[in-house]
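We treat protein structure as text, and this decision shapes the records that our systems exchange. The remainder of this section carries one protein's record, kept here as part of the documentation:
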Amino acid sequence: MHLDTFLFSALLLLIATSVAVALFKHLGLGSVLGLLVAGIVVGPYSPGPYVTEHVEDVRHFTELGVVLLLFIIGLEMRPRRLWAMRREVFGLGMLQIILTGLILALYFFYQWQSSWLLSLLIGLSFALSSTAFVIQILQERGEIASRHGMTAFSILLMQDLAIVPLLALVPIFSETGGVSAEIPAWQQLMIEIGMIAMVVVVGRYVLPIALNQLAKQGNREGFLLVVMLAVFLAAWVMDQVGLSMALGAFVMGMLLSGSSYRLQIQAFVEPYKGLLMSLFFVAVGMSIDFNAISQELVVFVQHILVIVSIKLLVLFLLVLGFGYSKQIAIRVSFFLAQGGEFGFVLFAAAKALNVIDEGTFVIAVGVISVSMLLTPILIRVSDRLAQRMDSVTTKTDHLRYPSDKGVEGRRVIIGGYGRVGHTVAVLLHSSGVPVVVFDTHPDRVAQGKKDGLPVYYGDISDPDLLDAANVGSASLVVLTIDSGTIALRTISHVRNAYPHIPVVSRARDLEACGHLLSAGASHAFPEALESSLRLGAIALQMVDVPKDDVDMLLQGVRQDNYTLVVSEEDKVRKK
């Protein structure tokens, strides 16, 4: 591609996505639907200029966004928490795939295909939902930790696992067979176990050592590159043994979920994930061939209505059968009613082995893409239906667990775990106030872990880190760091992004204190003067000055901006 062609394509894509996302967000339909529509506009199947003809290649590349998305989800999913979800993952998720696949197979056998086995493969492929769509929308709505969010995620995780046996079925229907047929089954199994073990060793032992060394050197670029290398290595290894790339990234993230570097890793990866996920949704929109669809419009519309209706019904009944409320059942069923991106993979593999013809492939890809296009609308319908039910139950279903809400509201974010930060953290923690501490020195982070405090590696002035730490729901930010520049940058970001969050900061002297207050700090305390005041107060009390008089004197000094105790030299320097 020539440079001028590339620049024109990039410009066209940015114009379309900017306008579409702004418009659809304004209409309350979400950015995902806007990105899909933008993809339709700049796709090769729409009139006017288009970005590229190689839509399938673009979609394959942007699937790396799904890889990074599952990696970030893995960072938040500790193994113990995943084990607690085993009933939903292996019970509810497996039943959903089997029942939905069988019912859809019956429909396709009598309405579309002459082969029962091929109908079964197509039905199981359409039983899968879109991990990328659902997780992205749940994150936008802040519902990933809700009950319906975690239930939907459990089902999606089982669907990601199911891609392995489904891909193994494809060569069975092919006359040419698969490449892996030459390798005995036991050897394939041993290779898969070996590759998975390699991912575990790298994520559990090798990667933390490398990140620790880079953190000590302050090498941010190297830190990010090593993280990306580990994620894509896990994805590539899983792909080589026939497993899902996204599943490999999820495992790598889960291995790092207990690391002190977890939040900083999330902050580094989040922007790249967001960009690639946006391009993924655009690529899905570009995949919709309306000309081919129009030739079999009645069949196409019928397929969408039947698939969505069957998935809605099966999911609703299964979720109810597992003891969840009607509100959760409605939300989960409407969230997962669309086709999934792994359907693209299955149908592409079937087409490559001549299992399905070109016409079937075009219709199948179109059904998946349009069903994704309908997802934001279906979710709005589920909101309306759920709101008509018991309002009390609905609130607890769609927000975070009530037990977490009060704790989250009192949480204090502390920047720095040096001498002052340690003191503040211990005082708050011993008083029952939850804290999260960040420091850029790995040795201090390790010491914090030994002290039994939640101390993480991270630059407190990094906006992405503060977002990953969910600072918007905290009650206070306390800065105890030595660097005035970092403190000013942190205060500026918190004040602009979270104006309701108070910030208390330590300062070296009175001049630095003034800069911090001007930047938006709620309170700033000059360390040298405060220690001097403390020493003076003790001296006064030891010469029998009443304690109340001492307290009034100190209060007056602080309210007068320390004017009484500032030397003439400091006054001149300040001027």
Q: What stands out?
A: The first strand starts at residue 412 and ends at 415.
